[in-house]
Amino acid sequence: MNIKAIAITLSSFITIPSIASDTYTIDPAHTLPVFEVSHLGFSTQRGRFDQTSGKITLDLQKKSGNVSLTIAAESIDMGLAKWNEHLKSDAFFNTASFPNITFTSDHFEFAGEKLVAAQGTLTLLGVTKPIRLDIKGFTCGNNPFVKKDLCAADIEAHLKRSEFGMTRYLPGIGDDIHVLVPVEAYKD
Question: Which domains does the chain have, with CATH numbers?
Answer without folding.
Answer: 19-187 (2.40.128.110)
